Amino acid sequence: MNKKNILPKNFLWGGATAANQYEGAWNVDGKKASTADMMTGGTHTIPRRITKELEKGTYYPSHEAVDFYHHYKEDIKLFSEMGFKCFRMSIAWSRIFPNADDKTPNEAGLEFYDKVFAELKKYNIEPIVTISHYEAPFALTEKFNGWESREAIDCYIRYCETIFNRYKDVVKYWITFNEINSLLVPAGAYLAGALLVDDSGRFNNTEVDSTQMRFQALHHQFVASAKAVDLAHKINPDFKVGCMINYSCGYASTCRPEDMVLALRNDQMNNMLCSDVQVRGEYPSFAKRYFEENNIKINMHKDDEEILKKGCVDFYTFSYYKSHVFGTRPEGDETQGNVFGGFRNPYLKANDWGWQIDPVGLRYVLNHVYDRYRIPIMIVENGLGAVDVVEEDGCINDTYRIEFIKSHIEQMKEAVYDGVNLIGYTAWGCIDIVSASTGEMKKRYGFIYVDKDNEGKGTLKRSKKRSFYWYKKVIESNGEDLSI
């Protein structure tokens, strides 16, 4: 194998977004509120709030987001100019079934995605569609408390059947749930599970968390995912359906054996539980021990085990932003990241939001995952959230973003040389979008700058950053020219 031309010629280079952070038009053409539409703005230090009713005078970032709904042609043309081979996007469930349990879909919503897919096809960009990306109809929360109820499975499958049939000739790659393992922690209860566990509507309130409720909701998502895989293959045998994991890479803080076991347990529970169920079709033994020790009782219907076995995914996808340390460490040395947290690593630098930067960890994760599952892998989220400055001449010199992505692509290529079957890479927030965790615009990931601030003010004008031209060169060379 030649290390120089390590990536296959059909490697899927592209970018990734989510409807609730990107589309806007939250109540246009029959769409109703999603769970994301009920989340207020926030900052790194002021948490977002969940409101059960919209508050007058309160800013809800997803209502307009950056208005892809009315800018989709312009944006997709820019993606094409960068050379995208693929575009990971999500469909807003609340645009198709506004009331969650509607008997018929909203035709205007379906027609919007008809236009988006036609535009992607025009530029030969392969869509990779996330079916549920931190967004469900808010009606699902109001009627059933989200995924706590088994009713959510039927609503989801009706939604899947609609979009699988509608787009069976234009979409090949589907992802059932975004970062499904985020439901393992309290911060993911509402975000990933549409669960309202706190009557005050506070976001991230761990005092009232119900671990039992979250794991039951997660089980319902496992069953829904498996049913969706089976349904997809029946509707179009060429469909490829994947899982998506929020990968929290963790190292032992010392070579103390107890620290090693702690790091192992974190890897098993945070990273492997969900993909074991979705890739292997059954709960792993370590999860069963965890349930027993924590008095968690999964209400499982008699056919659920068979459904899980029958609905194993075709490929594995994950997000990767940072790593953590687990084990012996003094208090006050904690660091946060994408939902999961841990201790700080003294060997690593961090971004403006305290997420530690670890490109070598990506190589480790790719090898670790591929050794376990032996199915094709995509990196569908990777990028640097940073504060971008527009110079007087209009330039955005985001060299820091280029250096971040360059270092990760280098390690990605090393993993492929190691033998990992990696088929795609989509940089997260390829155009500036609203942050899911903080609701900010200030935390920017994109190659394309969008003129909008944290208060929702701005023209929404799109501008190319320096990274735009660099990523274009990377794609043209299939990852060979990474020079800055």
In a nutshell, what does this entry contain?
By secondary structure, the protein is α/β, with parallel strands linked by helices. It has helices at 19-22, 68-82, 93-96, 107-122, 138-144, 151-166, 188-193, 211-235, 257-280, 285-293, 304-310, 359-373, 399-418, 466-476; strands spanning 12-16, 86-90, 126-132, 173-177, 240-246, 249-252, 315-319, 323-326, 334-335, 342-343, 377-381, 422-428, 448-450, 462-464.
Provide keyphrases for this structure.
Glyco_hydro_1; 14 strands; 484 residues; 14 helices; eight-stranded parallel beta barrel; TIM Barrel; single chain
Provide structural commentary:
This protein has 484 residues and is α/β, with parallel strands linked by helices. It has one domain: TIM Barrel, CATH 3.20.20.80. The protein has 14 helices and 14 strands. It has helices at residues 19-22, 68-82, 93-96, 107-122, 138-144, 151-166, 188-193, 211-235, 257-280, 285-293, 304-310, 359-373, 399-418, 466-476, and strands at residues 12-16, 86-90, 126-132, 173-177, 240-246, 249-252, 315-319, 323-326, 334-335, 342-343, 377-381, 422-428, 448-450, 462-464. The strands form four sheets. It has an eight-stranded parallel beta barrel with strand order 1-2-3-4-5-7-11-12, surrounded by four helices. A hairpin with a 6-residue loop joins strand 9 and strand 10 (342-343). The longest helix is centred in the middle third of the chain and has 25 residues, at 211-235. The radius of gyration is 21 Å and the shape is globular.
